[in-house]
Design brief:
93 residues, mainly alpha, 75% helix
Length: 93
């Protein structure tokens, strides 16, 4: 299993990412005036990119959680086997 990168909690990163995306969209609106239709199209593109980025991050987080869960289950099984009396070790799940 790959160790999680960095010391950030996943939800904090998503919130920071979304905040940056909205801030960037606001700056773009102020610095590059366009027609209403062009602006809606641009914002739609930004929103779709953010949506795809968030979906990818959620998949990464889900994968990490599932891997941690598997490791924890293996560790619990190992510990149970080590702590079980000699006669019961083979039947421990």
């Amino acid at each position: 299993m790959e160790e999680p990168k960095g010391g950030h909690v996943g939800s904090e990163m998503v919130v920071a990412f979304l905040g940056g995306a909205f801030l960037g969209a606001g700056v773009a609106l102020l610095l590059a005036p366009k027609s209403g239709q062009e602006m809606r199209s641009t914002l739609r593109g930004y929103a779709q990119k953010v949506e795809h980025d968030v979906e990818a991050r959620v998949k990464d987080i889900t994968s990490t959680i599932e891997a941690c869960q598997r490791l924890c289950q293996e560790h619990v099984k190992f510990c149970r086997e080590q702590l079980a009396p000699e006669g019961q070790k083979s039947g421990c799940a």
